Amino acid sequence: MGMIEDRYLGDGVNASFDGYNVILDLQEQDTTIVLEPKVLEAFNAFQRSVESFKALKLIDERHEKIKKVTADIDGETLNSLFRELGRKEKRNED
To answer: Which H or E element spans position 43?
Structure first.
């Protein structure tokens, strides 16, 4: 099995792997953090939560923009836009 190279992550943090633990070396603070697999798994789950939150926030922001744009469009114009989109989708399917 090959070795995993030590890697600079940014912000003065280097990462290494000793075969069991992920080791974070904080250069400027002369501090080392050792993450055993269970803790690393919890950290990864936390990161996935952060990414989900950011994605949901982006969806919500886009939804608000759409609501603002469509608030000024009357029903017939909106229906016309949807019909046109439907025609374009059908052409793309063919």
So the answer is: helix 37-71
For 14-36, the pLDDT digits (tens) are 999 999 999 999 988 889 999 99
Q: Could you tell me if 76 and 56 lie in one domain?
A: yes
The two most distant CA atoms of the chain are separated, in Å, by 66
pLDDT (0 to 100) of residue 25: 95
Q: Give the length of the chain.
A: 94
Q: Among 8, 51, 1, which Cα is nearest to 26's? A: 8
pTM of the predicted protein model: 0.57
Q: Is 9 helix (H, G, I), strand (E, B) or coil?
A: strand
- Tabulate helix, strand, coil % of the chain (nearest 5): 60, 20, 20
Structure tokens at 74: 């009357």
Q: How many folded domains does the chain comprise?
A: 2
Rounded to whole angstroms, the Cα distance separating 80 from 91 reads 17
**91 lies in which domain range?**
37-94
